[in-house]
Amino acid sequence: MSVAAACALSQQEQLQLQPPVKAMRRGSRQSPEGGEEEEEPPPEPPAWDREMTFCTERRRREPQPQARREPAAAAGTAGEEEEERLEREHFRRIINAFRYYGTNMHEKVNRTERHFRSLPVNQQKLLPQFLVHLEKIRKCIDHNQGILQTIVNDCTHMFENKEYGDDENGKISPASTFDMDKLKSTLKQFVRDWSETGKSERDSCYQPIINEIVKNFPKERRDLSKVNVLVPGAGLGRLAWEIAMLGYTCQGNEWSLFMLFSSNFVLNRCCETNSYKLYPWIHQFSNNKRSADQIQPVYFPDVDPHSLPPGANFSMTAGDFQEIYCESNIWDCIATCFFIDTAHNVIDYIDTIWKILKPGGIWINLGPLLYHFENLANELSIELSYEDIKNVILQYGFHIEMENESILTTYTVNELSMMKYYYECVMFVVRKPESSI
Prior knowledge:
By secondary structure, this protein is α/β, with parallel strands linked by helices. It has helices at residues 3-7, 70-117, 121-124, 130-152, 177-194, 199-205, 207-216, 238-245, 257-269, 291-294, 321-324, 346-356, 386-396; strands at 228-232, 249-254, 276-278, 298-300, 314-318, 331-337, 357-367, 399-409, 423-431. 38% of the residues lie in helices and 14% in strands. One of its GO terms (cellular component) is nucleus.
């Protein structure tokens, strides 16, 4: 299956997504914390006044023969119905988390105010601006909630073959601490991917990957539109978008609905630079040098997401990387950034990458090894050292073409904070030999 067959993109239509339920049960990073066969040509880009399109793909089940398989077919139907129920339940849970944000944050600020008022009066008088500052935070919360509500307003229509609809009464329920932490982390992703503030972080994480793509697939020797690049763990889509901007056919893949809802908003709803703002640091009550740092706004997007060149081939898929990508010898390049440690078993990722890369294709990786499932009960987690991962990569048959074990970078860092986490990342470029079958 070619890239176009899997998910052909025209950059101006409406995003539609359909994630498998397995993909929606995974964690998210919190800081710190194409084949050459003949195919139908991709559709012509629609008019410029259309919206940007993402297409998605989920893993297809093998068709079941109808004759003499009634019991199995019935069981399959029941399983599908249960899967759809879980998908719908998960979808609504994430929508609810977006809507619950304001309530959650106001409870935090109200608790802070109660603690302040419990101080002796003479101590309260020493801090005449404290309550004024809390009022400013409350206004920032309301602003963030407005953006989050806008993000989820049309999420029920995002999916290619489904409309989940709203819950029965639209009631907002308390969200879990886990979901609220992921939502707050997602707000910081806007900084990393789509703000001027995040440029230095993108320069350290994304630019080395882009440089290797350009080096290995120069426009002087290749038709860039025929170079198929896959970016698993695409987050809010900036790295994949930048690759598509250069003329490559690029597809991003993401499994987190927090990320997918937000990338849909940026790529489909934002068409003027710095037209929106967020207050991503208001959740941080510790390690602030100045009170004003906590309510510092960040503006996004720093570029017009609709400025892709005419005919650009850029798409996004929603779902589990290992489930969606199962066709052999499709991709010229796979670019992973802060991704491989999201695996339960990183060897499974390596196995998938080896399978779907074309012979002669390259895998570019940059990131740390902060294994996401290491401390989660009842979750399989295999934590390998880089030395072990490298040995596995070599045993699969990859050839190492570039390796740097010391790239210093951050992940959704708050430059104003008194506490910052830095990762000393590994970057490598490995090639699948031309002789691979």
